[in-house]
């Protein structure tokens, strides 16, 4: 099984080597425990620092590292989408380069996918500890207002850190050919195939 880690980066020159070290440690652990192979895809979102240089250096040192580079800043979602298009894995995880999404959670998240009938394992923040009180208040108000206006519940604390199954059910369904590499896979996050 191949696991693709998608890491959108904007001015993450200093964080990338630390992220790589931790991700490589977890990958080695999961090779033994799950028989998993890894690829790490850094998506440089038009960074102004040395992010692209670091991505190239990591690629030169480890063939499991790949990178995509944008000519300008398109935003995190575009970076995730580009990473999804480039990913070759049976499972795809999206993580932030600054380690606020700890790679150490990847084995437990994969276990949830492997043992349950799920196509996505997502994380959410359960506390706003350490956040300035004004920011916490605005966040709570945002979620309260948006959920009153919408039929779809937006979960407070939901993160981009998630594992997605690139299911053979999608790959082999003639109506869904190509969808497994598109944004449509990411939209529902609660569906079972």
Can you lay out the helices and strands and say which pair or pack?
Elements: E1 2-9, H1 15-34, E2 37-44, H2 51-61, E3 65-69, H3 76-86, E4 91-94, H4 106-115, E5 120-124, H5 133-149, E6 158-165, H6 168-172
Parallel strand pairs: 1-2, 1-4, 2-3
Antiparallel strand pairs: 4-6, 5-6
**Spatial strand sequence of the major β-sheet:** 3-2-1-4-6-5
Q: Please identify the structural class as seen in this structure.
A: alpha/beta
CATH homologous superfamily heading: Spore Coat Polysaccharide Biosynthesis Protein SpsA, Chain A
Query: What's the level 1 CATH class?
Result: Alpha Beta
Number of strands: 6
Oligomer: single chain
Largest sheet: 6 strands, mixed
Low-confidence stretches: 168-193
Count of separate DSSP helical elements: 6
CATH topology: Spore Coat Polysaccharide Biosynthesis Protein SpsA, Chain A
Kindly give the count of domains. 1
CATH architecture: Alpha-Beta Complex
Write down the Rg: 17 Å
Q: Helicity range of the residues? A: 25-40%
**Mean pLDDT level:** 81
Distance between the termini: 19 Å
Following the backbone from N to C, one meets helices and strands in this order, namely: EHEHEHEHEHEH
Strand content: 15-25%
Instruction: Assign an overall shape.
Output: globular
